[in-house]
Design brief:
- The structure is a single chain.
- The chain has one domain: Rossmann fold, CATH 3.40.50.
- It is globular and about 50 Å long.
- A 6-stranded mixed β-sheet has the order 6-7-8-3-9-10, sandwiched between helices.
- It starts with 11 loop residues before the first strand and ends in a 5-residue tail after the last helix.
- Helix content is about 35%, strand content about 25%.
- By secondary structure, the protein is α/β, with parallel strands linked by helices.
- A hairpin with a 2-residue loop joins β1 and β2.
- Bound molecules: adenosine-5'-triphosphate.
- Adenosine-5'-triphosphate (ATP) binds next to β2 and α1.
- InterPro entries: AAA+_ATPase, ABC_AA/LPS_Transport, ABC_transporter-like_ATP-bd, P-loop_NTPase.
Length: about 250
């Protein structure tokens, strides 16, 4: 199967997606069309449904209604593992490395379990992911010994080891110092420049705005603003959402 989206077709199409947990409606009729190569940021208050949207996109959670299309294929009923093999990589808000394994072995797990690679191909892909995530110098360090920035980078490397066309980042900059954040932003900018499509949820708006060319604001499970980042941040809708709380 070709992994490329057809000419003029979005790489990702989220159409009328809803997600409920019992009586709790977390997402309501979300529409999102993401062209190949775009870096899209998602902001929104705590509990807005941002992580849930990423989960519905990568298949960790199934949509209660609506469809998700990826690279020209309806993946709504496809599980997360198959979506990863089809080209979606995701980092999680709380890094969950195998702490007793080395950085390289963690990346290798992404290449084997995530991308379904074996042997030399898996080794090569894991190494490539470590290069992209700027972690080659700590390849033999146990993951459990990494400082926070290292754990964030490892989360990125594990996602990159699946060789994603679409990279989903969930609050990867949270908790870092300004200098650490800047270095991670540089890595993500390089990935974006190489053509990877990115959807990035982030509360550290400064980091987001240094990379993305489009910004969406999600509030109470609904997209309330979508467009050029500075214009979105200044919009009445976003100001109203953050009134009192602040970004
Ligand atoms: N598995 C689940 N079962 C029940 N409720 C859930 C589940 N996952 C998320 N929720 C609820 O859905 C809502 C949205 O959560 P979500 O984590 O998507 O928000 P978020 O915008 O990512 O928030 P934050 O910025 O704090 O990470 C919250 O009220 C949360 O408690």
């Amino acid at each position: 199967m070709s992994r490329a989206a057809g000419a003029g077709e979005a790489l990702l199409e989220v159409d009328s997606v809803a997600k409920s947990y019992g009586a709790l409606d977390v997402l309501t009729a979300v529409h999102l069309s993401v062209p190949a190569g775009q870096a899209l940021g998602i902001v929104g208050p705590n509990g807005a449904g941002k992580s849930t949207l990423l989960s519905v996109i990568n298949g960790t959670e199934r949509a209660s209604a609506g469809t998700v299309r990826f690279a020209g294929r309806d993946v709504t009923a496809v599980g997360a593992d198959a979506r990863a093999r089809a080209g979606m990589g995701r980092t999680f808000q709380i890094p969950r490395p195998f702490t007793h394994l080395t950085v390289f072995e963690n990346a290798l797990a992404g290449a084997t379990a995530g991308a379904g690679l074996h042997g030399r191909a898996a080794d090569d892909r894991a190494l490539e992911a470590l290069v992209l995530a700027d972690m080659l110098d700590v390849a033999n360090t146990p993951a459990g010994a990494l400082p926070l920035l290292g754990r964030k980078r490892l989360e990125l490397a594990r996602a990159l080891a699946t060789d994603p066309q679409l990279l989903l980042l969930d609050e990867i900059a949270g908790g870092l110092t300004e200098a650490e954040c800047d270095s991670l932003v540089e890595t993500i900018r390089t990935l974006h420049a190489s053509g990877v499509t990115i959807i990035w949820i982030e509360h550290v708006v400064r980091a987001l705005l240094a990379v993305v060319e489009r910004l969406v604001c999600l509030a109470s499970g609904v997209i309330v603003a979508d467009g050029e980042p500075d214009a979105v941040m200044r919009s009445d809708e976003v100001q109203a959402v953050y009134l009192g709380g602040g970004l």
